Amino acid sequence: MGHRRFLAVRVGQRRRRRIGGGISHSIDEGVNWIDTAAVYGLGHSEEVVARAIESHDPGNDVYIFTKCGLNFHDSGGKEVDNDLRPESIRFECEQSLKRLGIERIDLFQFHWPDESTGTRVEDSWGAMAELIDDGKVRWGGVSNFDVSLLERCESIRHVDSLQPPLSMLNRSARDDVIPWCKEHGTGVIAYSPMASGLLTGKFDQERVDGLDDDDWRKKDDAFQERQLSRNLALVERLRPVAERLGIELPALAVAWTLAVPGVSAAIVGARRPDQVNGWLPASEVELSDGDRTEIEEAIRETAAG
Length: 305
Known about the structure:
Low-confidence stretches: 1-5, 14-19
CATH class: Alpha Beta
Strand order of the largest sheet: 1-2-3-6-7-8-9-10
Helix content: 25-40%
Structural class: alpha/beta
Number of domains: 1
Strand content: 5-15%
CATH superfamily: NADP-dependent oxidoreductase domain
Radius of gyration: 19 Å
């Protein structure tokens, strides 16, 4: 299964009903790591993962990545706070291990910087280092950290991975954190390579207008005018590229992300097996210089993202 180690299926809070089938299908097709977080479904997603991997050997034939730092325990799930206090990190680790039914988390990540408790990131990262030394965590990583925070963590213990958003519509990580990671030997696990579905070719103005009022995308800039029209124009420019390569648009979007120098892997969400099939070929796609140039020109000319 090693040929698809650079693709992971994400188990998130919006994917409860049928995600079990998506996980199983992904693993059957060669994906051998799963990304989730305690806060997704307030623990529910980790429980779903536990059921999906019952017939597998966690840490060997499938790797489990989860996150801490969004504390919902103190409020009973009514509020979620950025919390990277050492005691909270250790508590979250123990709870995740129980829900996942494993003895060691393969990659434990800080979900977001701590903007609530005033905890020094050096103290937080020190707690992560202790969990690794204790054998409860295999590798330690962070998500959504900037270069300054990465450097402060690196001074305490090596940062094994960074998880930044990266897609054709959100390219800023190429300018700062990805080069830093490449220089320091830190893996880059890109998330949201399909830009929350915008790059899949499944969206148009009518579908956006039909989103539920409580759907967060209703207020996201990428789904609002005039940016939406630019983004949809890019999608139309991508269709002939995908057709020429013999793949679907989701696979092209993921393949572009994987082709960014310094990127180690990409995390992709799916509710159903057929959605997995849409992006799975990305692991085999080799974009030529001409393909990448054509895509960059399309991004520039449409002003997408």
